UniProtKB/TrEMBL annotation:
Keyword Coiled coil: no
Molecular functions (GO terms): ATP binding; ATP hydrolysis activity; branched-chain amino acid transmembrane transporter activity
UniProt-listed InterPro entries: ATPase_AAA_core (IPR003959), BCAA_Transport_ATP-bd_LivF (IPR052156), P-loop_NTPase (IPR027417)
Highest taxon listed in the record's lineage: Bacteria
Occurrences of domain ATPase AAA-type core (ranges): 24-85
PANTHER family in UniProt: HIGH-AFFINITY BRANCHED-CHAIN AMINO ACID TRANSPORT ATP-BINDING PROTEIN LIVF
Record's keyword annotation contains Transport: yes
Pfam family name, one: AAA_21
UniProt-recorded name of the protein: AAA family ATPase
Sequence similarity: Belongs to the ABC transporter superfamily.
Length: 107
């Protein structure tokens, strides 16, 4: 279960978060890129926010790690959290969103 600040649980522990428990004594700066992204997402979710801003969450990550993060964001969005994100990989972005404005060269 993901810890919830108001005593409720958010559901089953999504893939990836359980691996952070083994790394709890390691400084965040020494985590891999994927581990850092999972940690950042877990920190954001622990605040019980109604809106989640995500900027290029999958950049530089292995496809399997990126898929794990995407699955978590899908679960959170299904629970009613609004998600606003920037993503370079169109197939990932379109798989996550209800609406998709697309910018090309900043326009």
């Amino acid at each position: 279960m993901i810890p919830h600040p108001r005593g409720r649980a958010r559901g089953p522990d999504p893939r990836g978060f359980e691996s952070l428990a083994a790394l709890r004594d390691r400084q965040a700066g020494l985590l891999s890129g994927g581990e850092q992204q999972f940690l950042a997402l877990l920190c954001a979710l622990s605040l019980d926010a109604r809106l989640l801003f995500i900027d290029e969450m999958t950049m530089g990550l292995a496809p399997l790690v990126a898929r794990g993060l995407v699955d978590i964001v899908k679960e959170v969005a299904a629970e009613g959290v609004a998600v606003l994100f920037v993503e370079r990989h169109l197939h990932i972005a379109l798989g996550l969103c209800d609406r998709a404005p697309v910018l090309s060269h900043g326009e």
